Structure formats: C-alpha cells, structure tokens
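Q: Given only this backbone (125 positions), what sequence would you predict?
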C-alpha cells in the first residue's frame, strides 16, 4: 500500500495491517513511523496492526513513544496490536523499560533469541 511516510504499510486479506519500518528510528524519522501507525489503525476493515521491526537497526526513546502511540490509536479503535521481530538489542531495551509488558507481551523472548547473532548478549526476562 502506498503512503507518504516512506514506511511500508501492507494489508492482508484477514484485516491485518503490517507496518514495517527499516533502519534507524530516531527523532528525525519518528514522525513518519507515528503517521504510518495511525494510518494502519484507521484504515477501514483493519482488525489488527502488526509492527514488524525486523529491518530496524536502532530505535531511540522517541521511537518507543511512537510504538506506544500506535498502541493507543489501535486500542481506541478496538484493534489488536503487536510488535514483532525486534533484534536482541531492541528486545532488551523493550524489556528493560517495561515496554514488553505495555505492548501486551507481543514480542516473545524466543523470537529475539532466534534472531540473535553469535557474540550478542542474550535477551533474558
């Protein structure tokens, strides 16, 4: 699906809308992520919003704030919301800040451990 935010937003036939940012999500790009999440949560026929962090290499506190904003918009619209495929470093940041709990445990520890590269610190609960 085309959007003006530079972040892919794709709709599946089951009503799932996936938002897949890439690269660094910091103060200079956070507006695009927030806008894409709002778009995903307000599209007609959306049942669930999935944020796929597979391509994200770094996310700062403003990026985490955008994930929370996306959760708010989704829940205000009665939608399920999940964050998936964070790398081990991002997962550890989510865990340390308590955002794993706030984001409804949408990111399972085994997902982070599976994507861990040799020599990386282990994500633990």
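A: Predicted residues:
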């Amino acid at each position: 699906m085309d959007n003006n935010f530079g972040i892919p937003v794709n709709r599946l036939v089951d009503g799932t809308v996936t938002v897949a940012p890439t690269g660094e999500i910091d103060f200079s790009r956070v507006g695009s992520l927030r806008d894409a999440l709002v778009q995903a949560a307000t599209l007609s026929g959306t049942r669930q919003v999935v944020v796929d962090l597979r391509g994200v290499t770094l996310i700062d506190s403003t990026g985490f704030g955008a994930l929370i904003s996306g959760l708010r918009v989704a829940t205000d619209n009665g939608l399920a919301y999940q964050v998936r495929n964070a790398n081990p470093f991002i997962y550890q940041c989510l865990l340390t800040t308590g955002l794993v709990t706030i984001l409804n445990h949408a990111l399972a520890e085994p997902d982070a451990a599976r994507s861990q590269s040799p020599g990386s610190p282990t994500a633990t609960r």
